[in-house]
Amino acid sequence: MTADPKLLLPGDCALLLVDQQAGLAFGVGSIDRQTLLNNSVALAKTAKTFGVPVIASTSATKVYSGPLMPAIQAVLPDVQPIDRRSMNVWEDETVREAILATGRRRLLVSGLLTEACVTFAVLSALAEGLEVFVVADTCGGLTVEGHQLALRRMEAAGAIPTSWIQVLLELQRDWTRRATYDEARAIVEAHGGGYGIGLAYARDMIHPS
């Protein structure tokens, strides 16, 4: 199958997780927090399934925000979050260098809060010349309006909004790709709501036990 260069490929992108921490999630008002966690875990599983490099950065872990959320860390046990002081990960040389060291020029961004740390990272990565995709349903803002305004600002600057399920389906693209079929399908069944229920139902109907 001929690859469309406009579509994401597992070998051309990296995932940046920004401040996926409980202390910050407490302030999220743009999305139900359990839904946010569900989506973020699904995205982490997607990155792991397709071999997408993951850079995680945290802030104020000892004084307010806490560690990377355990449910996400459990999916990515080999990812060591890089703690920093600046709200903008791009102003932390260690994080910036870790992102650039992947050699990937397409960056998926997920995190908290949309109005601040997500926006700052995205705008700076765009200025660096990266193509940036904001996984919007794995980002949380203080308010619905604040989240939407931040997304509009990032999109106006050149970022591309997407969702975790679109990322997964875009990377898989063909259900005959057996290498990632079982893992990708399991992610959808566990985290994809009605679509996941439908996949499980179809599997049971086609292959009854």
TrEMBL record:
SUPFAM superfamilies: Isochorismatase-like hydrolases. InterPro entries: Hydrolase_YcaC-like, Isochorismatase-like_dom, Isochorismatase-like_sf. It comes from the Bacteria. Residues 13-165 form the Isochorismatase-like domain. Keywords: Hydrolase. One of its GO terms (molecular function) is hydrolase activity. This is Hydrolase. It comes from Sphingomonas oleivorans.
